[in-house]
Input
Amino acid sequence: MKLSKRLQHIEQMVTSDYTHIWDCCCDHGFLGSSLLSKQAAQNIHFVDIVPDLMSQVESKLQRFYPNSVSAWKTHCIDVSTLPLQHYEGSHLVIIAGVGGDLMRQFINDIHQSHPNVNIDFLLCPVNNQFELRQQLITLDFSLQKEVLVEDNRRFYEIILVSSISNKNSPISAVGDDIWQSITAKQANVVKQYLERTLNHYNRVQQGSAASVEYIINAYRDKE
Ligand SMILES: C[S@@+](CC[C@H](N)C(=O)[O-])C[C@H]1O[C@@H](n2cnc3c(N)ncnc32)[C@H](O)[C@@H]1O
Output
């Protein structure tokens, strides 16, 4: 199964050696399966809340990865209840393909349940990136890497953060590196994403009593 461009970029951002990688909201488990093929970690966990999906993923893994070098496990649970306490070692929690508000909830719940565990989160929300970033800043997380990807005329921020505070690697409310481009092609992606984001918040501003002018101004600084 060939991964979408978005999922390929997420996969490429898994470079450290983790004991456990959690492919959360895994759906059909494409990303986790690819990580399993690459032996990206000692253990790959597949997490989704839908029982039918998880039994299909379990069957596929049994069939295609019976003797995998990396161990794998499926979990039919809510991502908010990730059982990290039962698994020793380092953790990368990947959450992609869901909205920023739901993602904020997941991260908050996981962090509250495991306040002393150093967790890396690799995040790719489908919307509300600003609000998600605000939450990461409030939790005092630190930035490891961020990229902007265009896939099928949609734009995605992919953000790798650590739950450990690091004053030298702060998270920006609107992003920093995602606005940089070396190639003309990426410059065009950046331009379109900025235009689309500003249009979105201008529409929100018109239809809402609450002011989002500070968000618009923060993005305008990137023009
Ligand atoms: C659009 S898919 C994302 C698939 C893949 N991660 C990607 O980025 O392409 C969203 C998945 O999130 C799952 N999901 C939604 N809420 C969840 C929750 N609270 N806990 C676990 N999985 C959840 C859904 O069942 C669905 O399979």
